[in-house]
Specification:
Mean pLDDT: 80
Structural class: mainly alpha
Number of strands: 0
Number of domains: 1
Shape: globular
Helix content: over 70%
Low-confidence stretches: none
């Protein structure tokens, strides 16, 4: 009996590729800790550049759909990408693997957080991490913007949206 798991990983269970799929989404969860600004860069690096699972256009679609859906944007984006790679089952597995790592880390940190922040070097390291995160996010936005802003209509929509958002705040 064959179980249809996905379109890209053949119709049969290929354990090595499947374990790599699980590992990639687990690592994405660990590296990003569920933060959308971090996960955009990490998704692009792990899924587009390193493993070539999806294209940048698919990643942009995933983030857009993730923002539209209810719940956490990153979990929605990961579910969309997992579904794109491995069908429904791939989406479920990707979401579970993505959320297990941050859950474990957050539970470990929870008990020690107040004590850890008392040390100045840790508080400074966290602030430095925000700077690195911001630079990575800006880099990803510019790189993905190059692939999206390729015609006058897209550029016009971008400018109108940018102006509208600046007035809303």
């Amino acid at each position: 009996m064959k179980i249809k798991i996905d379109r890209k990983l053949n119709a049969q269970i290929n354990i090595k590729k499947y374990l790599k799929f699980i590992y990639v989404f687990f690592i994405i969860g660990l590296e990003s800790l569920g933060n959308m600004s971090a996960v955009l860069t990490i998704l692009r690096e792990n899924l587009v550049k390193k493993n070539n699972y999806v294209s940048e256009e698919d990643l942009i679609d995933a983030v857009a759909i993730g923002r539209l859906g209810p719940g956490a944007t990153t979990a929605n984006a990961v579910a969309f990408i997992g579904n794109k790679i491995g069908g429904f089952f791939g989406g479920v597995v990707a979401t579970i693997c993505y959320t297990i790592g941050p859950l474990i880390i957050i539970l470990l940190i929870y008990g020690f957080f107040e004590r850890i922040l008392q040390y100045q070097f840790i508080a400074s390291a966290l602030k430095g991490g925000l700077v690195c995160l911001s630079i990575g996010l800006i880099n990803s936005v510019f790189d993905m913007g190059k692939s999206v802003l390729n015609n006058k209509i897209n550029i016009g929509i971008f400018i109108v949206t940018l102006v509208a958002v600046s007035f809303v705040r």
